[in-house]
């Protein structure tokens, strides 16, 4: 049985993910010194620093600095949290709108292969479904010295 998923857009591609905590409009992010391009900064949610992931680099999609028109999808499993930067948050997709497929993942997306949990047929096209547990396993845990350094800046 397929659970309800949430759809979002990166460049011209539609992807799906579940479960999500909530969606917020892009806000100013606090930069992380020395972080790779796919970690553009931290979002503060209820006094907690949440790393923001921009997976467009790993998917080989065009990207630039975060824009005020973009969204952040907040993800959480247990104590692990992250926000996924997306160009557009779309809609909740109910299981009856989906059909599980077995498709080959496009070669251009192989950089994100560890994060892909499968494919589904949605709106007449095969869509990649992100695996939140795998995605959150790539999020660095902020050590106390790093967090103190970020707070002081």
Textual characterization of the structure:
The protein contains three helices and eleven strands. The protein has helices at residues 56-59, 132-137, 144-152; strands spanning 5-10, 13-18, 22-25, 41-45, 48-53, 71-77, 80-86, 88-93, 99-101, 116-122, 125-131. A six-stranded mixed sheet has the order 8-1-2-11-10-9. A five-stranded mixed sheet has the order 3-6-7-5-4. A hairpin with a 2-residue loop joins strand 4 (41-45) and strand 5. The protein is globular and about 40 Å long. Mean pLDDT is 83; it is low at 143-153.
Main features:
153 residues; mainly beta; six-stranded mixed β-sheet; five-stranded mixed β-sheet; 3 helices; 12% helix; 42% strand; disordered C terminus
Structural class: mainly beta
Portion in strands: 35-45%
> Ranges with pLDDT <50 over ≥5 residues?
143-153
What's the shape?
A: globular
Number of helical segments? Answer: 3
* N-end to C-end Cα span: 47 Å
Helix content: 10-25%
Let me know the largest β-sheet. Answer: 6 strands, mixed
Overall average pLDDT = 83
Strand order of the largest sheet: 8-1-2-11-10-9
N to C succession of SSEs? EEEEEHEEEEEEHH
Work out the radius of gyration.
16 Å
Count all strands and give the number: 11
Task: Note the topology.
Layout: E1 5-10, E2 13-18, E3 22-25, E4 41-45, E5 48-53, H1 56-59, E6 71-77, E7 80-86, E8 88-93, E9 99-101, E10 116-122, E11 125-131, H2 132-137, H3 144-152
Parallel strand pairs: 2-11, 5-7
Antiparallel strand pairs: 1-2, 1-8, 3-6, 4-5, 6-7, 9-10, 10-11
